[in-house]
Amino acid sequence: MALQPATGARDLNPKQVQQNQKLREQLTAVYRYWGYEEVSPPQVERLDTLMAGGAIASHDVVRLVADDPLGLRPEMTASIARAACTRLKDRPRPLRLSACGTIFECRTSEEGGLCIEEKLHSGVELFGVKDLAAELELLTLLLGAMKALSRLDGHHPRLLIGHTALMELVLAPFKEQTREHIRTCLIQYDRLSLEAIGLDSSDLTSLVKLLECRGHPAEILEILEQTFGPQQVLTELKRLFLHLSPLADQQSIAIQLDPTFHPHHELYDGLVFQLVCQGVSAPVVIARGGRYDGLVQRCGEIENNAGGVGFSFCLDDIRDLPGSISEDKTNEQSILICWNKTSSLEKALLKQTRWHEQGVVAQCDLKACTDRDEAQRRLELSDCSTIDWVTD
Questions:
Q1: Over the chain, what is the mean pLDDT?
Q2: Residue 85, exposed/middle/buried by CB under 10 A (0-12, 13-18, 19+)?
Q3: From CA 149, how far away is CA 164, in angstroms rounded?
Q4: CA separation, residue 121 to residues 105, 187, 222, 336 (Å)
Q5: Cβ contact 203:173 at 8 Å
Q6: Residue 298: pLDDT over 60
Q7: What is the pTM of this model?
Q8: Is residue 267 within 8 Å of 164, Cβ to Cβ?
Q9: Homologous superfamily of 14-319 in CATH?
Q10: Given this model, what pLDDT does residue 154 score?
Q11: Geometric angle at alpha carbon 381, from 332 and 375, rounded to 5°
């Protein structure tokens, strides 16, 4: 039998599991304060749900061999949106939901084979609000969650924000047959391919300028207003940043506006963002999210309520950041119950039960000790702090 996990999968040790649980509890507590109720979407879904009406590519979904077209979820938003528009459709809006669970990212390994990465995510979804109020609540909640993860401030967190309407403004002057090519070049920051399209020099100069247009929100918004004139999306972004900037400054979180930013999945149709921290050798995206009204409408929601925004933290990536989890030793007492040959395991187990009734962590040594010295040696090999020596 094979003794190695599947490519991309990892066995988590007890310490990693405890750290994930701590992160989960910290974030869930924040969500609860904001009125978000926890749900648990299934890991296995129909492919049409997982692909979100074409927003998520087929090759990003791990397919299952079954009579029905099924797969493992590459993210949780589509599943929660389906539930919100079906089983929870009669609940009043705004509908605030949170979830924590495993997602399965599918990619091609360097050797050309299939690589499946299993990661633990925690996030929120807000349904039924189609105006800027949803983004204001969502990003304020995001910063509140970051405050709960206080040890991340040493990793230079940066909130990168974009908007699909900004990309539409950029592409509007160009013919439809060249828009997708230009869009791909801008998203991938590929200046050479952009120059190879054969655009007029003035158009190319304008696009290259926009390609370099990323940075402090106030400065970028001024450039965009000079380029495109007054626009509703610019007015809304000004209001958003006016609210967020002081909150972000308090936590030393840099905010960057990028008109050409777009995430991997085509899930979003409004504000998009990702939260980046500096890892050991490269930046690490620890959270991402945005607005997905189109997905909610495809799930059957009526036009007036077809609003959805959300974000998701990757707990595994946060855990792996150096120093992101407190390494302080717990002062919790833990007892190793040892017994000699004149006593019995049964008596030791009864003593263990009494400790548990008092709320004390206690484990029982399953073999008799010849004397107290041997029990002390076993204590030194265990994770316990003291001995309860059981004799007749």
A1: 89
A2: buried
A3: 29
A4: 12, 25, 36, 35
A5: yes
A6: yes
A7: 0.87
A8: no
A9: Bira Bifunctional Protein; Domain 2 (3.30.930.10)
A10: 81
A11: 90
